Fold this sequence. Notes:
The protein has one domain (4-77): Beta-clip-like, CATH 2.170.270.10. The protein has one helix and six strands. It has a two-stranded antiparallel ribbon with strand order 1-2. A two-stranded parallel ribbon has the order 3-6. It is globular, with a radius of gyration of 14 Å. With 95 residues, it is mainly β. A hairpin with a 4-residue loop joins β1 and β2 (11-13). Residues 29, 80, 82, 84, 87-88 line the site of zinc ion (ZN).
Amino acid sequence: MYLFAIGDGKWVIDPSVNGNEAQWINHSCAPNCFIRERQGRIFIHALRNIRAGEELFYDYNLETDDDVPRTKAIENECRCRCRSPRCRGTLLAPP
Ligand SMILES: [Zn+2]
């Protein structure tokens, strides 16, 4: 389960609580969507034309809290297996 940090990170959106279908969008290192936060809300935008029925993906670019070091355990937990030729092997944002 992943949370959206909003603004300065003091608030989060938990998509599993009263969330909509967007909570099921998976990560890909070659996404067709991106996320933009505006005024405390999350908007999903297309990076290109998306065919009907095509699965939506965005790059999670996960970050740990400032006081949580990026450990090997966290890196192992966030391994990516998206099979994209551009897969960087992690759901984490580049350091
Ligand atoms: Zn990947």
